[in-house]
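Q: How would the structure tokens look for this protein?
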Amino acid sequence: MRCDGRGRAIDSRRHVQTLTRPTGRSAQPAFEASYPARPSEVAEIRGAVADVARAYGADERARAKIKLGVSEAASNAVLHAYRDGLQVGEIHMLVDHLKSSLCVSVLDRGVGMSPRIDSPGAGLGLSLMATVSESCEIKSPAGGGTEVVMRFDLGCDA
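A: Here is the predicted structure in token form.
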């Protein structure tokens, strides 16, 4: 991981994807990248977002919550978004710094929120994301897929 001239983390192995920016957010994200929707990428996604949180002064407790929420959202995208197995989709990450918090968006372009009777998980991911974050919103973007938007306090005077 390295930083650009504006202090944003850059991973040269990933391509940057511009996502629709919600109203009221800063023009430049703290971090923005896309990853293949593979189980092996979840740890890298979690680490990248934790590094951004650390750079903005997040304390250890806040980083633990952020890592858990991001892991759950990314794992859900891997397990549920591209369930047909015909293609490896992508997970788009967007992190905004908002005063003393981070807003983390995890977006996929998969099948969207739909029931899955053969689910490989325990079904606790959404409630866990809501518990560890200050707010958690699930959106269905116009282009399809799912976007999870979580806000985390940094636990500092960032």
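The chain has three helices and seven strands.

The chain has a mean pLDDT of 81.

Upvote if useful.
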